Amino acid sequence: MAVVEIQNVSQTFGHGELAVQALKPTSLSIEAGELVALLGPSGSGKSTLLLAISLIQPPTTGRIAIDGQVLFDDGPTGIDVRAFRRQKIGFIFQQHNLIPFLTALENVALMLQLNGVGRRESNRRAMEVLGYLEIAHRADSLPAQMSGGEQQRVAIGRALANEPALILADEPTAALDTERGTKVMAMLRKIARERRSAVIAVTHDHRMIAGFDTVYHLDDGRLTQVERSAEGAEPG
Ligand SMILES: Nc1ncnc2c1ncn2[C@@H]1O[C@H](COP(=O)(O)OP(=O)(O)OP(=O)(O)O)[C@@H](O)[C@H]1O
């Protein structure tokens, strides 16, 4: 089943003569376990597309379904988007955005607690996620005590904790050197493969493209090219 299904999604900012169509009508579908890159020059509409898919910034037109739920159909559909997002979508940013006075474990556990999971169970699951990302030994460290790559893995853990159907990453490797960037990419790939989340990463980073199943190229708000790796996402 498609985790993300968007049809004719477009975004126009401003009105009249000042209107800018940041995203031309765009349709695409992303399967469970698929690792997708959005590539394109600055201002091409990558963030606009990501913000539209997650309905953080609802589009002007189009239809958006995530994990079988129609969230937008040329307007709101009455779904509680904030609750849906919290349960079904994990976010990873260029800067990790960890809470500085919480440990790695607490940063991850907090996400679960926000979804109503009790404290003990949150801690247990957070520890499991940190173990999965090979960073359990840093569970009690504060963000400032960790390297950039470690911080980013904790941030991935936070995005992953709820086992979301969809993970959205905005330039997750941009702040990292090649080795750490490669490791973060490998983690995203592992998550897609093993946990069957769909992962969409906005990137400028050509070094990382090799690991993706599908690469969408955006130019001036238009989807210009789609490349699929020979291997593709293995059927689940
Ligand atoms: N809230 C907004 N109001 C008006 N114009 C906007 C808004 N957000 C984005 N734009 C415009 O829409 C276009 C696409 O922007 P977007 O941020 O999606 O590009 P991007 O590909 O993510 O760029 P970058 O790689 O620099 O982050 C740009 O021309 C931008 O100036």
UniProtKB/TrEMBL annotation:
Native organism taxonomy: Bacteria, Pseudomonadati, Pseudomonadota, Betaproteobacteria, Burkholderiales
Record organism: Sphaerotilus sulfidivorans
SMART domains (alphabetical): AAA (SM00382)
GO molecular function: ATP binding; ATP hydrolysis activity; transmembrane transporter activity
Keyword Transmembrane helix: yes
GO cellular component labels: membrane protein complex; plasma membrane
Keywords per UniProt: Antibiotic resistance, ATP-binding, Cell membrane, Membrane, Nucleotide-binding, Transmembrane, Transmembrane helix, Transport
BP GO annotations: response to antibiotic
Family from the record: Belongs to the ABC transporter superfamily. Macrolide exporter (TC 3.A.1.122) family.
InterPro entries recorded: AAA+_ATPase, ABC_transporter-like_ATP-bd, ABC_transporter-like_CS, ABC_transpr_LolD-like, MacB-like_ATP-bd, P-loop_NTPase
Protein name listed in UniProt: ABC transport system ATP-binding protein
Residue stretches making up the ABC transporter domain: 4-235
